[in-house]
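Memo to structure team: turn this sequence into structure tokens by end of day. - J.P.
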Amino acid sequence: REHAMGAILNGLALSGLIRPYGGTFLIFSDYLRPAIRLAALMKLPVVYVFTHDSIFLGKDGPTHQPIEQLAALRAIPGLVVLRPADARETSAAWRVAVARRDGPTALALTRQKLPLLAGSEAGADSGVARGAYVLHENRSGERPEILLLASGSEVALAIAAANRLGERGVATRVISFPSWELFAAQEASYRDAVLPPEVTARLAVEAGVGLGWHRWVGGQGEIVGLEGFGASAPAEALASHFGLTAEAVVERAETLLRRVSGRP
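Reply from structure team:
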């Protein structure tokens, strides 16, 4: 089914009469990959709406849980991948997708309900269009000691971890990072404002393989992600098992700070 859908979407885009979009689970982007690659090669403005974008879909198990699919999509030249963190970012991501005329766009959306994030109301419109933006700082006005980078459903997790770090006196910045491609296209001054080069303690949080994140966390940064396939269990149990909880992120952040900056 996905093979046929991909070919149909490309044909509709080539007609020039409409802007086509199609949707399926993120795991099934593997079946769409040849058509997505051709859409990128031909610079067709196709929009792909992928849902169930992480292990948190739960009991369907690892056969239906996308682990490496985000990394695989990000590897396609000319494809813009957007993984929004809440409803406001999703609305902004749609605007980016509709405005694009020179290539395909993929939206990766979660299955579970996500809260509206404080900070996205003011920052989502411009921040999503630029690929990443400062969403939260637990000690505003201070130079951050550590940067937490996250996309999609893990942004709320990063904010929860940042607040706990703040209670322990750690100045923490959370960057919502919906699109690597859009952020990479920004001017260096903007990228440095979001990711200050002098702050080398950086921790990326995403429910997928960590491949590619070192471009943004640097040589001293670390990644909270998945090193293997998922498992069949409720989302809460999976989060605990794979270390995708606020407590686990705080522990990793404190260990990173001790290693990078010598903070006790």
